[in-house]
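Re: the pair you flagged

First of the two:
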Amino acid sequence: MVSTAVERTVVVRTSTTRRVSARCLPTGAKTFGWDVASLKAANLKAAKQVREVPIAEIRRPLAKVRSNDQAKVDALKASILEHGLLEPIDVLEVEGVLFGFSGCHRFQAHVELGMETIWCRVRVGNKTALKMHLM
């Protein structure tokens, strides 16, 4: 049986550096002028915070009160199919539960594409931080 899975590169951008998790680039992937060897050898400290998470494990408490721009979701779907997810979404982990407050369009694009997982930048917080996000 031949696997049809697409390997993706996750790029994590900070204000001063660009970092990437040690994943393989798909054949013909665009590296946007970055040296692939440098990307793979980048400091993985930030990449350890980025992980692939099942979409079903992410709770989106504000999803009912916020709406997405469908044109933006459609554009992201095309981009994700061509390049993979270039910027992970941010989730807050509180007592082992993941809450998504940002990356709504990217999240919705993954849902509409039928993907089971999404790359997330996981931040650990407490109930006080969660309450602040819910206000």
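Second of the two:
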Amino acid sequence: MTKNDDRIVESATLDEAIDDIGFRRMHVLMFITVGMFFATDSIQSGCISYVTEVLRKPWVLEAQDESWIQGLVFAGQIITAPLWGGLADRYGRRPTFLAASFTMAMAGTLTAVAQNKIQLMILRFFMGAAMAGYPVGFTIFAEILPTTNRGKIMLSTMFGFAAGSLYQTIMAMLSICSIGWRAFVVLCTFPTWIGAFMSIFFLSESAFWLVSVGRCDEAVRNINLFSRRSGSTVQFRHITTTPGVEKQAQGKASTMTLLKEKELRRPFILMSLVWFGFGLAFYGLFLMTPHLFSKDQDDSMQPRGAEMAGSLSSSHCAGITFQFQDILRSNLGQSFGLLLSVCLVDRVGRRGMQQILYLTASIAVLCLSFKDCFGVSLLQGLIAIAIGALMGASCCTWPHTSESFPTHVRAIAGTICSGLSRAGAAISTFAIAGNMSFGSIAAVLCACCFVSFLAVSFTKETAGLTLDGKEATVTVGKRQQEPRTVAEAV
């Protein structure tokens, strides 16, 4: 039953129904929830760099040990990414995401009780295995956003990643040298627990997924309930969609689906190259920053990266000096790069912004290979530009990927591509902790940025399109032809 003051719409497509509801309070709560998991990605990927630095002497960690501890987070994501995506496309976005989110929170918390490097490696692997499922939450959010401002809103969730970088650095500054690395790890799991519990209340099942598997009545109830909880008075009797979505529901998505179907193969291969390239480049720089701005206290040589004598903020623990102020300044570039993308993504386009920013990152990283010629301020600036450009570009890659694939493979395509970025990240950990010179590392990262630039140049622009790939419409009822009805409210 509907309330007397409800505005009843007899028939609308899913895209039109979502556009008619508009952007409301439930979207804001979902935005915060999804942002918590981008913060988790940043925190959990980066905090281990501080932990391995602190444990290097007490646990007698070799360079290879550090690489494995850091790399197993990404290895877990690589291995389980197709699993989470497949589960989401077959059994539902919401239950899959809830399972991943609470597993993340538990694995992160248990990391604090590790007693040796083997236990730490195992727990970090399980953390990574769970983290591979968090892109499913991004898919849920993407499938309930109105078309007109979907790009900016999806991009804005990435501020969670930038906030996570700052949170992790501040927590390290406040805790890792004063109350220990275990307390630091526990503090780093707080955003994950908050996001997991918020997911229970604010993330509902995707109506797009419900229709794609033939649960059409549920899709109508889902949209109407979401509308009420959002404060909208619009209610829908019929939800309609194109026959293509019903056709999609007849098959089961898998990794091979993306490679076998001609219309999916090209965007999947291109997006895979983009994700792998930015994963290696971004996480390589991200994980390298704490190493660049730290040194052994008994080391008579200058800190890694540049001369640090003038740093205003540093902490000493376990024989290591961290220059936290310099790390914070370098990481601030993420926020500026993201803000630039949010402002221009609809005007310049998803593809155009990625081209500009991946190319900018390539040039900035190339300049970093001459770091010995720079003072600390210039080094900070170059790292900020490189990380900022990569952050802004990769944030455009997220919505571009979601918009490039149909409903029946959207989740699995997103999780696999995300897993490939972690494959690049895992490779970067061995390069950083290995015997490669900084100039060689910079050359590899520069090449990866350029590969992402080239690959994205051959993709399709998706700005202004609905999730089924058609031009956006903003008024319910003004359609070129009446699509077939697939559901009616009960």
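Residues 35 and 196 are 11 Å apart (CA to CA).

-B.
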